[in-house]
Amino acid sequence: xxxxxxGILAHVDAGxxxxxxGLLYTGGAxxxxxxxxxxxxxxxxxxxxxxxxxxxxxxxxxxxxxxxxLTLLDTPGHADFSAxxxxxxxxxxxxxxxxxxxxxxxxHTLTLWRLLERxxxxxxxxxxxxxxxxxxxxxxxxxxxxxxxGGCVDxxxxxAQRDEEAALCAETAMEEYLSAGALSDGTLSGLIGGRKLFPxxxxxxxxxxxxxxxxxxxxxxxxxxxxxxAFGATVYKISRDAQGARLTHLRVTGGTLRxxxxxxxxxDGADWQEKADQIRIYSGAKYRTVDAAEAGTVCAVTxxxxxxxxxxxxxxxxxxxPVLEPALMCQVLLPEGCDxxxxxxxxxxxxxxDPQLHVVWQEGTGSINVQLMGxxxxxxxxxxxxDRFGLAVQFGPGAxxxxxxxxxxxxGIGHFEPLxxxxxxxxxxxxxxxxxxxxxxxxxxxxxxxxxxxxxxxSHLAERDHPGVLTGSPITDMRITLLAGRAHEKHTEGxxxxxxxxxxxxxxxxxxxxxxxxxxxxxxxxVPAQQAGRAMADLQRMGGETAPPxxxxxxxxxxxxxxxxxxxxxxxxxxxxxxxRGRLVCMPGGSRPCRDQEAAVxxxxxxxxxxxxxxxxxxxxxxxxxxxxxxxxxxxxxxxxSGLRLEKPEEDAPAPRPGRSAAYxxxxxxDKELQAIFERTYGPVKQRAPQRPASPRPxxxxxxxxxPPAGPEYLLVDGYNVIFAWDELKTVAAERLDxxxxxxxxxxxxxxxxxxxxxIVVFDAYKVKGGVEKVEKYHNIxxxxxxxxxxxxxxxxxxxxxxxxxxRVRVVSSDGAEQVIILGxxxxxxxxxxxxxxxxxxxxxxxSILDKNNLAGKARPMRAALERxxxxxxxxxxxxxx
Length: 882
What we know:
The protein has 882 residues and is of the alpha+beta class. The protein is built from 26 helices and 40 strands. It has a 7-stranded mixed sheet with strand order 2-3-1-4-5-7-6, with helices on both faces. A 6-stranded antiparallel sheet has the order 14-13-16-9-8-17, covered by helices on one side. Strands 23, 28, 29, 30, 31 and 32 form a 6-stranded antiparallel sheet that branches.
């Protein structure tokens, strides 16, 4: 019998739980149809869920059907609990994405779509609430295709029309359609499983309209993955029952799990083995016990105390680190007389059940901080602590959760050698692209350090968050590679390598140039058209990035990204100045370099050298006793040579204080000073970024690159940053953004003709659904629109790295956050203000030359270009549909 796990996902209030209720009722699993607003929904069985009318915790319900058994997993719809939803995606065979017919594709819908794409989950789409006035099926289908995927096909139309549209999703399907005139169920199921086809149905779950059709479609076309013969399982959730028993919720991906089977894993660097005491199959709040769970079964197991969400058991590999991370941090204010250690134990239990609830214990002050997704999650946490533990807590003012990364590769060395202990570790720390997280690798030969010790070092790297040296925030977006190490035959223990490894990470960070990252929201702001100007000005003041506004009737929709710190209270402000008509929807949008790193670092006041819990210094044995050696002196005292050489700083130049950066405003003088500091720290700026050799011992001559060849200079211009940094263009953009783009391109065409350099103007198109990178020739310059999910900053960073190997490169932008990365790639950054002065001088020289040749009427200085841009008949470089 086919066993399928099907997740039900949606933006909050789209009708997800109502649809789940309808599926269970239609399939015969429920005798009575419950309702969310009546507080008797089958799956919303927690008191807090019924009070609020929202799903907070994911639950399962089993739906037996002829020839198949469906396990429906109802997930939270609110963005604050999206981490719970993300964990559930790891165990799904397919998903039903519920879209409100009254609201269309909403902000959190896009977040869910990206997560489904990341985990490769096949998707059926159910457009709900079609009984409400004003819903338009054709318009909604067009929106689904535009904003989600072109493979969205209406499956409520006749089969001939459906097959004709589905055949366009793949060449093999088109061949079958042309030869047979129809598509088989096997072909349709294959297209769905390959995420090339997304069946869409329209209905009203509250009236059971379209529910039976969806159930029949799932039973007939939902793809069933191949199951392995060896036992494997994925843990996706930890919870506790009413008696306090710990439950490990998992999906059996292969083989069979039986009661009393011995399961094993590893946590915190220690291996464990425990028995599965009981296997429960839950359906709502009730469960039945079974003796065995076959592949495809979703169940809860008792008796396991060391499991964690995302862990793979048996033959199943562990899942990747979740994409969604907490954005806010608050201090827990305990009631008078409460033991903080007892409160910490309760919070640790909740943290185990929700890994995105990060609990931070401050040993020095005895205070507790929690990191979480948003205000609603904070309210739920407060209620859960009261209901489960009788603990009435309050929370202090919230602050954003920072992360840290580095600007360039660096080697970190840790040595731990008190009496009768010994370990030394050499690590290469390299920056990665934003959102990459932490990656660990080894490039150490086994004749230098045994494989068992190497595995232990990698496990110590992965078993904790490593604090940075700017604010003590966790590091991210780095690859840490084991280069070399040494153990002693008699005196080395496992804990010695833990100390050496953590000190090596810390020593490398102290030697590196650190970058502070702050969390961003992706937002969708809807305001009346007359308030659009104020909204755009507010978002620009916050340091946000916006796509061109879209008009929907009498309202304007603005999408983009902005720092969490600036945007977190803006929803209430927008509602106030629009008299309740403004709506702001925010979704986690990753992290970006902090706008004012110096101020943020100063406000937190973290001193890395006084952090005794995270030392960067090493311990060497001197005269039979352990002796602490300062981190800066460790490389000279190391016992092992890693074989890798990065650029050496000049001996006569004073080393900058690690982890601190000066305030940067984009002037030419600061660019020169920044480059001088960079070269003093890392050596002369090279055109080729440092490469990690295949062997840990590089060949002679690999530490220096050849000087950059003479050739045409490339000028990369961040289009929107320059437009909003130049007052003339910003004025034009306030009326017509396309006119401002055209004016900038005209000016850059003149500049290219005068300077004879290669000009590339880059515009953000990262919000264009399904957009691919487009390069257009406009007169004598190139205009680039970035692909979906790629900002202009990311494109410029990547392109600078590529062409900077062979050519001189300058980058024009008003974004000071990229200056270190651009300098590290061998390019010179020019601020938008400085380039404005240069542009003014160039246009003046062009006017002078043309005047001498009696061609002044053909000149196009800045003002003339702006006037020309406002003419209605002028052509603009082609731009992707947004």
